[in-house]
Amino acid sequence: MKAPKPEMTSNIKPIEAGTINAICCGLIDLGTQRTEWQGVEKDLPKIMLIFEVDETYEKDGQEYRRNAFAEFTFSLGSKANLRKFLEGWVGKKSDDEWYEFDITELVGKPCLLNIVHTKPNAQGKVYANVASAAPLVKGMQQLEVQGKTSIFDFECEDKDELDEKMKSLPKFVADKIRQSKQYLGFSTPVSVPTEDKGETPINEHDDNLPF
Asked: Residue 122: what pLDDT?
């Protein structure tokens, strides 16, 4: 019997705490997620904003810009965390204006992010969290997106197409999406034998699954 090898962990340090120049490069629909808060479970719509920040790391001899991730319940109500976050970034709006706001307009928009560090966990690992966003200071140079911008939604014909669409996402983001009710509600294409009924292959959706 051989001892299992420990899992490889990233040795990349978290983004430095404090204020950092950034630009929004992605908007991800995480779907409806089961969330527990104070012992109560709820199904809530979730989204994730992805930012490129003015900090790099080296991998295989090349430099890459760091990414910061911010997850929110997709609500723009007066007490919603997403609305508070956006008000610090794009300014205040009326309720009607927020409910008409197209959140995809954030992709490509520059900002200053406030990064805070968590306390070390049991393994001593520290994580960098996005606490808030603000407009750039006057005269500050705006970053340009180095990688690709991405807007992810569930507009797909079947699970195969959705899985293909998810290949461009970071693994931990794709894993999160796979837990959503929308993802679980997709079925893979089902081929119906043509020799019995003369029917062509169809894509089926299970109407009994929750959305």
From this structure: 86
Q: Other CB atoms closer than 10 Å to residue 13's CB: what's the count? A: 11
Q: What is the DSSP string of 103-162?
A: GGGGTT-EEEEEEEEPPP-TT----EEEEEEEPPPTTPPPP--SS--EEE----SSHHHH
State pLDDT tens for residues 155-199: 998 899 999 999 999 999 999 999 999 999 986 555 444 444 343
50: helix, strand or coil: strand
Other Cβ atoms closer than 10 A to 168? 12
- Determine phi and psi for 67, rounding to 5 degrees: -115, 140
The pLDDT value recorded for residue 123 is 86
> What's the rounded Cα separation, in Å, for the pair 174 and 153?
12
Please report which residue ranges of 55-192 form alpha helices under DSSP H. Answer: 81-90, 95-99, 159-166, 171-177, 181-185
H or E segment to which residue 30 belongs: strand 18-37
> For residue 128, which of 36, 29, 8, 19 has the smallest C-alpha distance?
19
What does the alpha-carbon distance between residue 182 and residue 196 come to, in Å, rounded to a whole number? Answer: 33
Q: What are phi and psi of 24, to 5 degrees?
A: -75, 125
Query: Based on the number of CB atoms within 10 Å of its own CB, is 161 exposed (0-12), middle (13-18) or buried (19 or more)?
Result: middle
